[in-house]
């Protein structure tokens, strides 16, 4: 993008609504509750003929630097420092507050261009708040309605005036191609060619990081980045939006998504938490790899097992990360116990890679990423039809399909129909009669014989066609 714009203002003035309007999709969570946004969220914005990077930020609240509100405001300050111009949003309907005056003074001291935006100007009685905005000393306010899309042309002109024509409209060859948000790019099904392509170790990886609240997901990502990019703290449930960050690991582009902690469904009562969980679920569905972060001090809670099962049912490639390893007293014995429980409690992803880590100290992060790449390699694997049919024949010799009602089910043909995750189709007689236990036998055989540990495997049965079906019997 040619330039970067930060949206700033006090809570509940409509910053996230304006952000969603500019990016053209509902990326940021929006609710009537003040202070919904906590982390800074970037997005690719389009306004008439302008293209730029927009950053949604947390609202200004007076508090100490050690409090959650203080840490949120530090994230907003970082966004202002990063941006080329700030959109200072005030509520024309409610009027100005002391927090608006404080923020206006801070923006003046930053020395960067500021566009004053009077949101909710379509509301009855908003004229007073609009004219009060002149007292901030930041020029003429731009009246808009982020909810209804009014005033967008005036906002475009104000941004161009603040940033300058040359910066607003760079030459075509200087404009960088931006990434599309992960939720608009579903993971592909893979092609159906009967080949075994080599694994591409240079393609970007999209990774979602999930777990229970306070498991250390944001701290882990900050350690990968080497900076305090995401809001962290001792409070549970700090993260609300699914925030994407991009970085390099051994020359490979990694796009990682921090998500809100997911509690048991019965405990999720508030509307805002439901929105956060729904956002996390979208990140899982559109990711390629999913790192499930366990708190090593209280591992294998029932919710942890539910999360792994959810990832497997969605067909994503899972990796376990036992965080807070620096708090474990006897690591060797504890690790052996964790590995035994992993195999016993998670049979649906047998062989899943589990890595002890510490997001606080950085221990084990390189091994975690190596496990992620190895799991992605398996998740993308494809096996030729010839190998599969030789294997299927040997499996039936070792353990023939059971006879049901005196008739044995015949498995005739097998092929891989897609990767990501690996999915296979078996042509057979009477597919409805083949028991689940035999499908588990075949699944485990695929894992062992083709080195496919820790990823979900799908096996679909299809009735073989009868060439004489529909023809009349001769008398």
UniProtKB/TrEMBL annotation:
A Pfam family: MMR_HSR1
An example molecular function term from Gene Ontology annotations: hydrolase activity
Keyword Phosphoprotein: no
Keywords per UniProt: GTP-binding, Hydrolase, Nucleotide-binding, Repeat, Ribosome biogenesis
Disulfide bond recorded as keyword: no
Record: residues binding GTP 2: 211-218, 258-262, 323-326
Positions in coiled-coil regions: none
InterPro entries documented for this protein: G_ENGA, GTP-bd, GTPase_Der, KH_dom-like, KH_dom-like_a/b, P-loop_NTPase, Small_GTP-bd
SUPFAM superfamilies found in the cross-reference section: P-loop containing nucleoside triphosphate hydrolases (SSF52540)
Domain EngA-type G: 3-167, 205-380
PROSITE patterns listed in its UniProt record: G_ENGA
Residues holding GTP 1: 9-16, 56-60, 119-122
PANTHER family recorded: GTPASE DER
Protein family membership: Belongs to the TRAFAC class TrmE-Era-EngA-EngB-Septin-like GTPase superfamily. EngA (Der) GTPase family.
Entry-linked NCBIfam families: GTPase_EngA, small_GTP
Self-association and partners: Associates with the 50S ribosomal subunit.
Role this protein plays: GTPase that plays an essential role in the late steps of ribosome biogenesis.
Protein name as it appears in the record: GTPase Der
Biological source species: Ciceribacter thiooxidans
Gene it is expressed from: der
